[in-house]
Specification:
201 residues; 8 helices; 21% strand; 3-stranded mixed β-sheet; SP0561-like; Hypothetical Protein Aq_1857, Chain: A; alpha+beta
Length: 201
């Protein structure tokens, strides 16, 4: 009977993880993924796929996917999970939307480049896009009546009431890739997400 290795018994990376989450937690898997033929690690569509979907999309069989997972776990077996560093200033109880420190720091960088220090980022959900709803991002000087304001690492994010209802439990991050960079929303309320990663239903 074939003995399973420690990596197979206690995998850090599973085939059900999205490519984006896996790469964020374990950047060391980028090179092995490229060697496995998954060259679109940085693209918005692939970022939201599971590892299994990405690998099968490149023609792999179930057995090959299984072997690939062993290879990826081997690559990170001695690497601790990358912990997110996030400092929240202000109201934190019942925080229904999580905004990463990376997203906050990137917003401050963008605001400085745009000469809009002191502004915040408004996040809205509106009808449209290829899946029914789409996300919108725009600079805003201050909150409006009915907004909920999140202050993370000194950066402000505004969400109106109706949008907040559709963003409950979401994580807002910033992803930088060769083909696609921008603010990304992982929304547990979305039944499906368009390949562009910017619309959902």
């Amino acid at each position: 009977m074939e003995q399973k290795t420690e990596v197979e018994n206690n995998p850090k990376i599973t085939k059900d993880m999205t490519i984006g989450v896996a790469v964020e937690k374990y950047p060391a898997i980028v090179d092995p993924l490229m060697e496995l033929g998954v060259h679109c690690v940085g693209c918005g569509a692939a970022y939201m796929e599971t590892l299994e979907q990405g690998l099968k999309g490149h023609g792999m069989s179930d057995d090959q996917v299984k072997d690939a997972m062993v290879k990826l776990n081997d690559a990170v077996k001695d690497i601790p999970e990358k912990k997110e560093e996030r400092k929240v200033i202000g109201k934190t109880e019942n925080m229904d939307v999580v905004i990463t420190g990376k997203a906050a720091d990137k917003l401050k960088e963008i605001m400085k480049n745009e000469k809009k220090e002191g502004y915040g980022l408004r996040i809205v959900v509106m009808p449209g896009g290829c899946s029914g709803y789409q996300y919108g991002f725009e600079f805003e000087k201050e909150a409006k009546e009915g907004d909920k304001t999140y202050v993370v690492n000194g950066a402000k994010f505004f969400v109106d009431g109706p949008s907040l209802e559709m963003l409950q439990g979401s994580k807002i991050d910033y992803h930088e890739g060769l083909q696609d960079s921008g603010f990304k929303i992982e929304n547990p309320n979305a039944n499906s997400t368009c390949g562009c990663g910017k619309s959902f239903n």
